[in-house]
Design brief:
Distance between the termini: 66 Å
Number of domains: 2
Radius of gyration: 34 Å
CATH class of the largest domain: Alpha Beta
Largest sheet: 7 strands, mixed
Number of strands: 37
Strand order of the largest sheet: 28-27-29-30-31-33-32
Strand content: 35-45%
């Protein structure tokens, strides 16, 4: 008949409640006996109410331990919540090597075993996944005192309880840091094997309520060298990422607590504004002084309230140092400007003469440096008779064809959220000029190669309307829409259309529009929009509008350009 040992295990658990790894605090030590039987199906050992500076560990119905490779029976309901319990095990002899939970231990041999800390853990309200909370003990007699072999990391996502969290991943940036997976143990310490992981994930199919503590069981490890990373995935698919570098290694038997407060998804206000060149105005418009026109233009730019503005048809006078230098407006608004792409210098550098059309159709952008950080920028020329692009002025002169068009590009970081995105600005030719279809294909090819799947924004005067009305020149825009989403459509779905849904939209192309009068300027319909802001990737437009500013001169009401600024609010997910 196998011997039956009556063993009293003690579960020691020291848990700190500070946000930074804290000094060990006095554990609540269970002191009464417990009963041990055969096998554990994976139920839990739970937290009791906090006692002073520590959370006591309590046994639960269904708990079982392993001694010398033999699993015990499950605890009955009468011992649920006890700090001590009695387990009965058959066929064992001292010395005892014990582990909890029994299902985590395997391959016992000569005082050592394999133990597994689950990389994928299930959320348990107010506690941890019992299958991952590993405790070990050694004893020569019937009284066994367990100590945790894992550390606990408790995270609170500080948001409304109505917000649901699908999963949270805690990991190291260093692949050599063993956080979970398979280890060997002598029932005193853990040693990682080839089956370890540098992360652990806690998830819930029902969703974890915002504000509820989420507890990870992890192997003792050192995040202080390479840092740790947290990724929270909410039920709606949005993600929150945080990183930190603790000041010391995480130890077994300790709980480390922290909280994160989600920042609202990055929202930026993006505008596109085609600024007509002075030399293209009618004789009536030429009566306006440059000072009056550009002051009005500056006020129109500021009225967009945009964090990022793409420009089209910048003439040399608007460039820094020109007679109507828009950088003056920049200093008033706090913008940083990138307007001179391409400029006459691009051509005169090679041939010693200026090519004015280059500036006449140049693009640029302005941004608010308190909101966005510019990481990199540049431009390329588009090809009229193909989809190639050229970064050199000589190649563009020899191969691009006329009319010359460019794509200006920039890579930004949203400072508050850390979210990154790409911004592209272009200006496609009219139907009569030709080449719009090829250049649209060139825009798609270049932006896809440059940005890949990263969140991207494309703004520009496409001289193309997604409409079947006569003169819409709809092919170029429909080529672009194969890869891009029109913010007008996204905002319409979100109920965020502004004045463009009530007043007429923007469309140049007739001599009448060059008079800049309010009536003439707004005569066109929204379905004939040729100025566009489009998105690709993890971006969503929640609002879309045009901004109308006018000024009076010579007894008439004027608009600063033959285009209205188009403005969209875009959320970076």
């Amino acid at each position: 008949m196998p011997a039956r040992a009556r063993i009293i295990p003690f579960a020691f658990l020291m848990l700190s409640c500070t946000g930074e790894p804290a000094a060990p605090e006095v554990p609540a030590v269970p002191a009464a006996p417990v009963t041990i039987t055969a096998e554990l199906p994976g139920t839990r050992t739970a937290f009791g109410p906090k006692e002073g500076d520590a959370w006591p560990n309590r046994w639960s119905e269904g708990d079982a331990i392993s001694i010398n490779g033999i699993a015990s029976d499950q605890l009955g309901p009468e011992q649920d919540g006890a700090s001590k319990a009695y387990f009965t095990v058959s066929g064992i002899q001292a010395p005892y090597k014990a582990g909890y939970p029994s299902t985590a231990f395997s391959n016992y041999s000569d005082g050592s075993a394999t133990v597994r800390i689950a990389p994928e853990q299930t959320y348990v309200p107010g506690s941890y996944d019992p299958a991952a909370f590993v405790m070990t003990a050694t004893a020569n007699g019937d009284n066994i005192g367990f100590t945790p072999a894992v550390a606990l990391f408790r995270l609170t996502v500080d948001c409304d309880p109505s917000v649901r969290i699908r999963s949270v991943r805690l990991g190291s940036t260093n692949s050599n840091v063993a956080v979970s997976g398979t280890f060997t143990t002598d029932f005193r310490t853990l040693k990682p094997t080839g089956g370890y992981r540098n992360y652990v994930t806690v998830s819930s199919q029902e969703g974890i309520p915002g504000g509820a503590p989420i507890t990870f069981a992890i192997a003792p490890c050192d995040f202080s060298i390479s840092g740790l990373q947290l990724e929270v995935i909410f039920s709606d698919g949005t993600r929150l990422a945080r990183s930190a570098t603790p000041s010391k290694a995480y130890k077994a038997g300790m709980m480390y607590t922290t909280s994160v407060k989600p920042v609202e998804p990055a929202r930026i206000r993006v505008a596109y504004y085609n600024i007509l060149r002075p030399e293209k105005r009618t004789q009536d418009a030429l009566l306006l002084t440059n000072e009056v026109t550009y002051n009005a233009l500056g006020r129109s730019i500021l009225a967009t309230g945009a964090d990022l503005i793409g420009f089209g048809e910048l003439d040399p006078g608007a460039l820094p140092g020109g007679f109507a230098d828009l950088s003056v407006v920049a200093s008033q608004a706090g913008y940083t400007w990138k307007l001179d792409w391409p400029n006459d210098i691009s051509r005169s550098y090679h041939w010693g003469w200026n090519y004015s059309a280059t500036c006449a159709y140049s693009n640029g952008f302005a941004y608010n440096p308190s909101v966005l950080r510019l990481e990199d920028s540049g431009y390329v020329w588009l090809q009229k008779n193909g989809t190639d692009t050229y970064s050199s002025a000589r190649s563009a002169y020899e191969k691009a064809g006329s009319p010359e068009r460019t794509v200006v590009w920039a890579r930004f970081t949203h400072i508050l959220s850390g979210a990154g995105f790409w911004f592209f600005v272009t200006h496609l030719p009219t139907a009569s000029q030709g080449g719009g279809e090829n250049m649209a294909g060139g825009v798609n090819a270049f932006t896809a190669e440059k940005a890949g799947d990263a969140p991207s924004i494309l703004a520009g005067d496409m001289n193309s309307a997604d409409s079947d009305v006569d003169g819409s020149n709809n092919v170029p825009i429909r080529i672009l829409l194969q890869q891009w989403t029109d913010t007008y459509d996204s905002a319409a779905k979100a109920g965020g259309l502004g004045d463009c849904g009530t007043y007429d939209g923007t469309l140049s192309g007739s001599s009448e529009s060059y008079y800049y009068t309010w009536k003439t300027f707004t005569k066109n319909r929204p379905d004939r929009r040729i100025d566009h802001i489009m998105t690709r990737g993890e971006l969503e437009a929640t609002s879309y509008t045009t901004v109308r500013t006018t000024f009076s001169y010579g007894g008439k009401v004027w608009c600063p350009s033959d285009h209205l600024p188009v403005v969209a609010t875009i959320v970076i997910n």
